[in-house]
Amino acid sequence: MLNLSYVLPLLFGSSSSTASGEAGRTSPIFTILMMVALFAVMYFVMIRPQRKKQKEEQDMRDSIQIGDEITTIGGIMGRVVTVKDDSLVIETGSDRIKMKVTRWSIQANNTAQERMEKEKEAMRKAQEAEKEAKKQAKKGGRKERTEKNAEIEKTAEPQEEPKE
């Protein structure tokens, strides 16, 4: 069996060593554990969300198709005419001016955002309709129960026997 009186001073520094002049020293294991904990917090707070956002942006840029409305980092809005490996040709304005831009310069795919908003709205309406249907079913179920209870009570009433 492991005796904690030997392990704890190794992890957190010796409490009995204060008399020997080691009051300010901490265990190297404790220091390493603190550094690992600090790195873990930094990873989950800063690095992981940034990588997730970069991945979403890259997926958006890779999913651009001909006919999509896009906005570039510079604020130029246009419709995609041609898609190549690392560049796109977009049409801007009513004059149909064509511009060649790189994929990394695309900030937003407006067509995909509109589709997503419409899908979210449709899902929200479907959920509301489902909730309403459940409410109606509960109300209908209560009516049925009360009607069944009334039928049971009628059959349970003592019937008058004919007097002779």
Characteristics of this structure?
flat; 16% strand; 164 residues; SH3 type barrels; 3 helices; single chain
Structural write-up:
Helix content is 55%, strand content 16%. The protein has 164 residues and is α+β, with helices and mostly antiparallel strands. Among the domains are: 4-59, no CATH class; 64-109, SH3 type barrels, CATH 2.30.30. The chain has a five-stranded antiparallel sheet. A hairpin with a 3-residue loop joins strand 2 (77-83) and strand 3. Mean pLDDT is 81; it is low at 17-21.
**Strand line-up of the largest beta sheet:** 4-3-2-1-5
| Overall residue-averaged pLDDT value | 81
N-to-C CA distance: 93 Å
Q: What is the strand content?
A: 15-25%
- Gross morphology: flat
Helix content: 55-70%
How big is the Rg?
Answer: 36 Å
Instruction: Provide the low-confidence segments as ranges.
Output: 17-21
The tally of helices reads 3
Class from secondary-structure proportions: alpha+beta
Listing every helix as H and every strand as E from the N terminus to the C terminus, the arrangement reads HHEEEEEH
Let me know the largest β-sheet.
Answer: 5 strands, antiparallel
Got a strand count? 5
What's this model, at a glance?
The chain is α+β, with helices and mostly antiparallel strands and 164 residues long.
Break the fold down into its secondary structure elements and pairings:
Blueprint (H helix, E strand, L loop, with lengths): L3 H9 L15 H35 L6 E4 L4 E7 L3 E6 L4 E6 L3 E4 H47 L8
Antiparallel strand pairs: 1-2, 1-5, 2-3, 3-4
